[in-house]
Design goal:
This protein is of the alpha+beta class and about 625 residues long. It contains 11 helices and 41 strands. Helix content is about 15%, strand content about 30%.
Length: about 625
């Protein structure tokens, strides 16, 4: 439930700025729900060996508005039969009233405690329900109290016999194949962006396991959890070899899943789906920020249907708009951005203004304003995770602009994050101002369709909730030394820096990379361009960066230098070196540079140098 997250947070040692105002904000959201009845179109399905899942992201139940869509779906799939509402203490009269108003034959609150979780009477009461609804609260309390008990068996039996099992907030989090369990307290996105193996990122693999291949996250946009769900998915791939779909669900929104894995979005917010692809590469090291590139990002609003087995959208709502052919690529002025500066959020093409209203996105009140146009076709969001009062506006506002401008790029920066941009279209992740935090890049170049919620969420709303769909974006988390190539729409594990020595043709040779420096890729290559045709060139590297005058240019390689080999540049002054990556290089850095002869230069050295590449080796 919205107001209960503080229970888990009280276990925390440190508290982020602004947390005190978050929970009144959420309760204000709950109190401002506007009544509005939707027509229910889903028909009850036949009994099945597997049941139905309703994964709802949080919010007080209601028999109208979004609640009619979500709770009405459960009642229909349960055939109008009895509902049991589970928690470990207390009760939820609002949930019971919503189920009854929408046609359930009965709705009973049941507190399942350590004392009665193995009671045959409790088992029978749960097992006889057509719908089991698990309230919000503390998912670790549910796991530790119910795991291995008759109550857990009964919940599973309802699902196995074709019934409905649903949950909100913590009750939603426990419905997946694996569970983010919050056993040590809830993890904030800024913590996973600094260290994927922090104390608070823990998982449970042996409880309920109802929805195969999925891990759920809740309160997704309002708590800007796009900064943590990709880390969950990548951790589980690395540690357990599990290729899971991460499903982030907004408040007052649900992903309603049928026995065949067809998942329909219902409610007023969005559902965000994140998963690995064949292009995904990552580097996760304890105590260091995560690097994850090439994740699929599918964000959907009510009426979209997603096939979990094929990982594709199979139906779109009537208000969805197919994205036009992509226009111009992002183009940049050479500049720098700091995640702690409010003004840097205006450095893109457009920005949003919430007018100091923490509920602006929820109430449809975000205003679109012009940016400074230093970064064209780009949206910048700063201070995204440092202030929990406005994180929904900052995360969701950038997504609103992407939905309005498909093929644009969004850059999400937190306090310590520093980036620099180049006129060639690169976003370079620079050294941080403090504890390093990954840059989050959401690229909408591949978006197929967009939509916006049609729900008016509260009596104080200026218009429909500004939750949006982005079908087919790409998500990456980048750390220091990496770059995003906005022209190629690709993450680079090798970032260029410095400049080459001017050669006899008046050009500065430069290095560029292709592929990923990873043992699993076998496609990493470095190319020198704009050298002197026909001369011998040497590619070399070292473990460190430097800036040392050398032969009329600058030597950027520091430490012990290793030569890769000499090749002759072709007629355009270019040559490529294919560079195999051994497993023991994972997590290490190298700096590469090229040296070549230039007899016509007549400067006493008759040689020239390229710029340099910082290379971070992926897993």
């Amino acid at each position: 439930m919205l107001a209960t997250r503080g229970t888990a947070l009280q276990k925390r040692v440190s508290w982020p700025a602004g947390w005190q105002t978050r929970y009144p904000l959420e309760m204000r959201k709950t109190a401002s729900i506007l009544a509005g009845v939707l027509t229910l179109t889903a028909l009850a399905g036949p009994a099945s060996a597997n049941g139905w899942i309703c994964a709802e992201g949080g919010g007080a139940p209601t028999p109208n508005g979004w609640g009619a869509s979500v709770f009405g779906w459960m009642v229909q799939k349960g055939g109008g039969g009895p509902v049991v509402i589970l928690g470990t203490s207390g009760s939820d009269a609002a949930a019971a009233n919503a189920f009854l108003a929408l046609g359930a034959s009965s709705a009973t609150n049941l507190a399942v405690t350590a004392a009665n979780a193995n009671s045959p009477a409790v088992q029978s009461q749960i097992a006889s329900a057509s719908v089991v609804w698990i309230r919000g609260g503390d998912q670790w309390q549910y796991i530790s109290t119910w795991r291995g008990t008759l109550a857990e068996q009964a919940i599973r039996s309802v699902y196995a016999n074709g019934g409905v099992v649903g949950g909100t907030s913590a009750g939603c989090a426990i419905l997946g194949d694996l569970i983010y369990d919050a056993r040590n307290g809830s993890v904030f996105p800024y913590e996973t962006l600094a260290n994927p193996y922090n104390t608070y990122t823990t998982f449970t693999a042996d409880f309920l396991q109802l929805q195969d291949g999925v891990i759920f996250d809740t309160h997704f946009t309002e708590r800007a959890r796009l900064g943590r769900l990709p880390v969950f998915v990548s951790r589980l791939w690395k540690d357990s070899g599990l290729d899971l779909i991460g499903v982030g669900v907004d408040d007052s929104t649900a992903l309603c899943i049928d026995p065949n894995g067809l998942a329909e979005v219902r409610g007023e917010g969005a559902v965000t789906i994140v998963h690995r692809t064949g292009a995904t590469r990552q580097l996760l090291i304890a105590g260091q920020p995560p690097a994850i590139t090439g994740l699929a990002h599918v964000q959907l609003t009510e009426g979209y249907v997603y096939d979990l087995s094929t990982r594709t959208v199979v139906a779109r709502p009537a208000n969805a708009t197919l994205a036009p052919a992509p226009g111009a690529d992002p183009s940049f002025t050479a500049t720098s951005l700091a995640g702690n500066l409010a003004g840097d959020a205006n450095r893109g093409d457009l920005s949003t203004n919430d007018g100091g209203n923490s509920l602006a996105l929820f109430q449809g009140a975000l205003q679109v304003i012009d940016g400074t146009n230093e970064l064209l076709s780009t949206v910048v969001a700063t201070r995204v995770w440092n202030d929990t009062t406005f994180d929904e506006n900052r995360m969701g506002g950038a997504q609103l602009l992407l939905a309005q401008n498909p093929a644009w790029l969004a850059l999400y920066l937190d306090n310590p994050t520093r980036v620099s941009t180049t006129s060639a279209g690169f976003v370079n992740v620079d050294p941080a101002s403090g504890t390093e935090s990954s840059l989050v890049v959401l690229d909408a170049r591949g978006v197929v369709s967009t939509a916006q919620s049609t729900y008016v969420s509260s009596g104080g709303s200026a218009g429909p909730r500004q939750s949006v769909a982005l079908e087919g974006a790409t998500l990456s988390l980048l750390r220091r030394g990496m770059a995003y190539d906005a022209v190629a729409h690709a993450s680079r594990w090798a970032a260029p820096f410095g400049q080459g020595k001017v050669n006899s043709l008046g050009r500065r040779a430069f290095l560029e990379s292709a592929g990923t420096p990873s043992p699993s890729s076998n496609d990493f290559a470095i190319t020198v361009r704009d050298g002197v045709p026909g001369v011998g060139a040497l590619l070399f590297f070292g473990p460190n960066e430097a800036s040392t005058p050398f032969q009329g240019g600058t030597l950027y390689v520091g430490g012990s230098i290793t030569r890769v080999g000499i090749q002759f540049l072709d007629g355009t002054g270019s040559r490529t070196w294919l560079l195999p990556v051994a497993p023991n290089l994972t997590g290490t850095r190298r700096t590469y540079q090229a040296w070549y002869r230039n007899g016509a230069l007549n400067d006493g050295f008759n040689t020239a140098l390229s710029n340099a590449l910082r290379v971070l080796h992926a897993e």
